[in-house]
Design brief:
CATH architecture: Orthogonal Bundle
Keywords: Signal
Distance between the termini: 64 Å
Shape: globular
Pfam families: OS-D
Order of helices and strands: HHHHHHHHH
Organism: Culicoides sonorensis
Largest sheet: none
CATH topology: Antennal chemosensory protein a6
Strand content: under 5%
Number of helices: 9
InterPro entries: A10/PebIII, OS_D_A10/PebIII_sf
Helix content: 55-70%
Protein name: CSON007981 protein
Structural class: mainly alpha
């Protein structure tokens, strides 16, 4: 009988430990701006400058820019775990574009939001990106 009680306690403790260790569904970021045409923004120099100034605390933010600014540190550090599928796709497109087409802007943004190069290292480790994108040592080692 004593062994059964000990076993039950052990099993209960193990189950409790296991359920607390498993990742829980995190709440997703606000999706009200998911339908913004990201490609149109990337092609528009005026809009790109405005968003970058917002991110760098050098200018005002639109409501969607403020949401991006508030979410960006967590999204970079946690591999966009709270992003919707549309946000993941859009953020990958934006980051790839900025790293490739606007490396000076990426360097400034990365100093503030990705100082340990968490995102850039992951980006450059992906085999498909090594051939298609600029994964230079200069970008990683600051």
């Amino acid at each position: 009988m004593f062994r059964l009680i000990i076993f039950t306690l052990y099993l209960s403790s193990f189950t409790l430990l296991l359920t607390n260790a498993l990742p829980r569904d995190l709440p997703k970021y606000d999706s009200r701006y998911d339908n913004i045409d990201v490609d149109a923004i990337l092609k528009n120099e005026r809009l790109m400058k405005a968003y970058i100034k917002c991110l760098m605390n050098e200018g005002p933010c639109t409501p969607d820019g403020q949401l991006l600014k508030d979410s960006l540190p967590d999204a970079i550090q946690n591999d966009c775990a709270r992003c919707t599928e549309k946000q993941k796709s859009g953020s990958d497109n934006v980051m790839h574009y900025i790293i490739d087409k606007r490396p000076a802007d990426w360097d400034v943004i990365a100093k503030l939001y990705d100082p340990d190069n968490v995102y850039l290292k992951k980006f450059c480790d992906e085999e498909e990106n090594k051939a298609k994108h600029q994964c230079t040592v200069g970008l990683i080692e600051k």
